[in-house]
Amino acid sequence: MPIEEIEFEWDQWNIQKNETKHGVSSVEAESVFSDPKLKLYEDIKHSTEKEKRFICYGKSRLHRILMIAFTLRKQKVRIISARSASKSERSAYQ
């Protein structure tokens, strides 16, 4: 799905946390979803009966491989966390 068709929803706290703690802006985090090589996994550990969570690894518009944790709410992607991928996560991406 082209990124133009994806709607994102953000909690203001998560925007600040990702920028301050991880150095990832909301724009960069969203850009990962346009990576044709995006790797997507269900986050079983953090999912609940009420809400499934997902993790993806992809290359951002700044050419960094990021890990994005997110959920879907009302057909929108709600990003929970965005950070640089660890060594093992980069391997999973490649």
In short:
The chain is of the alpha+beta class and 94 residues long. The chain has helices at residues 12-22, 26-31, 87-93, and strands at residues 8-9, 39-42, 53-59, 65-73, 76-84. The model has no long low-confidence stretch (mean pLDDT 92).
Tell me the layout of helices and strands.
Blueprint: E1 8-9, H1 12-22, H2 26-31, E2 39-42, E3 53-59, E4 65-73, E5 76-84, H3 87-93
Parallel strand pairs: 1-5
Antiparallel strand pairs: 2-3, 3-4, 4-5
Spans where pLDDT lies below 50 across 5 or more residues: none
Order of strands across the biggest sheet?
Answer: 1-5-4-3-2
Rg result? 12 Å
Question: Which geometry do the CA atoms define?
Answer: globular
Strand coverage percent: 25-35%
Question: What descriptive keywords fit this protein?
Answer:
single chain; five-stranded mixed sheet; globular; alpha+beta; 94 residues; 33% strand; 3 helices
Describe this structure in words.
The protein starts with 7 loop residues before the first strand and ends with a helix. The protein has a 5-stranded mixed sheet with strand order 1-5-4-3-2. 26% of the residues lie in helices and 33% in strands. A hairpin with a 5-residue loop joins strand 3 (53-59) and strand 4. It is built from 3 helices and 5 strands. The chain has one domain. It is an alpha+beta fold and 94 residues long. The model has no long low-confidence stretch (mean pLDDT 92).
